[in-house]
Amino acid sequence: MENNTTMSHLVNLTEMPLFPLEEQVITIFLTMLICGVGIAGNIMVVLVVLRTKHMVTPTNCYLVSLAVADLIVLLAAGLPNISDVVAFWIYGYTGCLCITYLQYLGINVSSCSITAFTIERYIAICHSIKAQFICTVSRAKRIIAGVWIFTSLYCIMWFFLVDTNETVYANGVVVTCGYRVSRSLYMPIYFLDFTLFYVIPLIIATVLYGLIARILFMSPLPSHLNDQGGGGSIHQGHSNSTKQANKSAVSARKQITKMLAVVVILFALLWMPYRTLVVVNSFIDPPYHNTWFLLFCRMCIYANSAINPIIYNLMSQKFRVAFKKLCKCKWRNEEKAAKYNVPVYYSVMKNSSHESNNEPVTEQEEISGPNTNRCNATDDDDDASTLSISQ
User: Fold this and answer.
1) What are the boundaries of the region Disordered (predicted)?
2) What is the pLDDT of residues 131-187, one digit of tens each?
3) Residue in 47, 66, 145 with CA at minimum distance from that of residue 107
4) Where do the domains of the chain lie, and which CATH numbers do they carry?
């Protein structure tokens, strides 16, 4: 419902400013491309973790939280940008409040999720004995719930900080969604947000990944990682297999740690242009508002929310296999649906595997019986050629 009483009416008798055609085309193309890839990828991350039992690990729980937060950013920040560049603000007062709230909610939950899985990786690798009791799926779910509740309450302040503004031009009225408070009052709020959800998470990540690297990549490896339970075996074959298993476990830990470190580095780099711009604009007047640089900053933010599933697919064999299984399951389900749309004629045939009791089997049983749940069954199989992401 529109709240016209809160809108400020500014009169400007000049012509209504319009975005250049090339800016509109580039903005719409890049936004649709990045958001389309990001929405599809993050949905796949959520599905493969929720539908595959061996993928439900503490680390992956945090990655699901990150994927949902990135989805919110892409839907609340990316897609409205398409209409905004063509027809200014079309979502009204309520849309201004809700979309701004969701934007900051997604951004801040993303940051908290990154911090959470960084701490989880540090405990799992540097304090592996404690990790058996601390780094559990149930605890991860409680932490994620706490993150979402805290961030949801923290972001409520944006309902009181934004408003729609109307500017009357000679050839029309332009509605924008902007800040209700003055620039001087907004700066302390921004720097609090900047410190809590950008500076502190990066400091924590830098320190903890430094400690993790010292443990994982030092030579020789600590005994709790390099020789877990296999040193005293009197059976040489068992000892060799144990050492091979330990080697695979360490390799898996290195793999997932590298992947998560890349996620953190990209978070820092892709958010840096926007964060730097806001800091600079806090001290200069008038603020720097170059159109193309603002577009670059927005695309970096959208890319940060879209690129994580690509990183998982490139750097994690476990995720890569799970993504392929998910796509294969969808293809099989569509194929089965098309197959069952044609008439099926039943006839009795002799099955050689049932010769002892001469049980007949129908063509329908041969088509749908043994393989009906194959797709679901493979979701629970832990492929021996892949490495556990929870290691």
Assistant:
1) 353-391
2) 888 999 999 999 999 999 999 999 999 999 999 888 877 777 788 888 887 777 788
3) 66
4) 4-185+302-335 (1.20.1070.10)
